[in-house]
Amino acid sequence: MNTENSSSIPHDLEKTEVSHNENAVIDPTSEEYLIDKKAERRLLLKLDAVILPMTVLMYLSANLDRGNIGNARLQGLQKELLDNSDNKYSVVLLSFYITYMLVSIPGTLLSKAFPPNYALGAGCLIWAIAATCMAACQNYASIIVCRLFIGVGEAIFGQAVVLHYSLWYKKNEIATRLAAFIGAGVLAGAFGGLIAYGVSHIHSHIDTWRILFIIEGAPSVVLGICVALFLPGRPDRSNFLNEHERELEFLRLKSQNLDEGNNGIDWSGVKRAFTDWKSYVITFIYSCMQLTLSSISGFFPTIIASLGYTNAQAQLYTVPPYAVGFVAMVIINHFSDRLRMRGPFIIGVFSINLLGWLLLLIVTHNQHVRYFGTFCIVIGGYATIPLIQSWVSNNTGSQTQRAVHLGFLNSFANWAALTSPFIFPTSEKPYWHKGFGMNLGFSCAAIIVTACMMLYYSRENARRDRIEGKPVPGQRVDQARLHDLAPGFRYTL
Fold first, then answer.
1. What is the tens place of the pLDDT at every residue in 198-250?
2. Residue 8 is assigned to a structural domain of this protein
3. What 3-state class would DSSP assign to 378?
4. What kind of membrane protein is this, topologically (predicted)?
5. Domain containing 101: what range?
6. What are phi and psi of 126, to 5 degrees?
7. Residues 160, 107: contact at Cβ < 8 Å?
8. What is the helix (H) or strand (E) element at residue 159, kind and residue range?
9. How many domains are there within the chain?
């Protein structure tokens, strides 16, 4: 693996770095100084008014359609179709991750090869149709097929939205907007609990879990069509911007060397992502979060019910932890953008996650303390997502390298999620030492590895400063060709 220490950058590239910096000057006419801040704020409001609502609704829909299996379990799905078998339920959960992992890298690259609005809309339609069809399932095999297709659709969509944001927003604008985007997943948990609670009181000849799948799946079909038709694709091709706004957007992107102008797949960027050891380390950190997230997705209502609530009450009591998690995530990621730092916030959120799993593991009789622990794991499971995704987006030089590395987060990080369906067996209820203990251990590992990566980035930036001198405003950085090895490129801590 490439360790990217002083010997990892080719000798001729180091020469280029030195000469590049010697000729670099601060250009008062550079893009950074030409941007009209008031016009930029108006442009951001326009972007946020369309891009954020549509992508947020997609994530809300995706999480409802992925996570409602946990609510449906309490409403009789496991008893009716799965012979009340924990193993069969675990396989149903597992099936989603199989296709989700296999399709994530090519699925994310689709937004580079084709207009992003078409790629994202197609992904939404695939999972929406599959999620709605779950209402018609009559046996174990049909549920698995539907979950496999939900995984395909969400793989095309999941990390491609992060890539899409990087086409429109600057580095220090992404985390806050990703927090709003991922926050829809937290709200999905809250809405999912409320919807499931309401559906559980419907008296009909149709099973309530079937009604749940229809109510949460069908609207997503309409959403997929709207995304394909109305979501802005790329700044250089979208009719969403007028000429003045397009020029301003190009200046904004150019000021941070984000204006590649290449809409196809750059295979050198693909190679860089696969051969860069940092891709795998950051993916491991993300996998630690995925274990918590998949545990929550599949078992959160069950964990809440184990605190002494009825199944119907448990659906309702899932709402407050999700609501608090949403507020915490927005605040944390806002300050991460303001300070332009990711690592310290990732460590802080994993520490909250660690506390939650620790309380659930060691507290056995005080159910109020255990319920407080569920708030901590929701914050830890969700607030970390935009932080890590922003870290990847900030520290990958080119769009293609970014697309592949973001795909890594789903393809390779979900190995941890593959274990979650099997670490909460009913026989260990209500203490689940295996499930709580594994999540606790992975949170500890994530804290240690994140601290090591921060130390590496700091030392690597200092090394490049010694070789090149400090980057100057207006200096052009050849990220499209040299990716994160480009002279002038610096990592975000």
1. 887 888 888 888 998 999 889 999 999 999 999 999 888 888 888 888 888 88
2. no
3. helix
4. Multi-pass membrane protein
5. 27-485
6. -65, -50
7. yes
8. none
9. 1
